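Now for our target.
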Amino acid sequence: MPAYSLVIFDFDGTLADSFPWFCSILNQTAEQFDLRPVAPEEIEGLRELGSREVIAHLGVPLWKMPMIASYMRRLATEAATDIQLYPGVAEALEALADAGVRLVIVSSNAEAPIRQVLGPAADLIDHYVCGASLWGKAAKFRKVLSQLGIAPAAAIAIGDELRDIDAARDEGITAGAVTFGFNSAAALRRHNPDFMFDSFDDLRKTLLR
């Protein structure tokens, strides 16, 4: 029996193994927007930080963030053929859908590359909410709940970053986190989500208990 009637997924770092790609375009993006380059040895330290702390650490002016987000969405579209789903994603999505669970993706990425990476599994998703701003997910969650007529207590939001946990909590939604995305497992654990998943097999078994 499904534990929740609605599962809201983040995409990059949650369903898609896009963190290596993200690291590969960091300095290209830094050069494009006249920011300091990121040294390879900084990456692991950044995984311990929240998004606001990362931006402060890298010295990124907030007024540049919308332009940076747009630029990175374009790069993500170009790289969609090179980004893969994590093992077990398609099987987990199919099992959830077969159990009658509504599936939604809320992402800062664009819908076209998300669908391309998902492949046939894209048709299992009931609703795509794309182009969310860095700290705009809570409002997107609220809109999804309203549109689908689902109470917050019947939903779980699953992401890979501290801000995903915060957004879920802001809307009274259960917060789930995967341990293999942007933020490290230790950083996520310190943020105390309701659930932590080490694999999609683990996620499927927990949500369909």
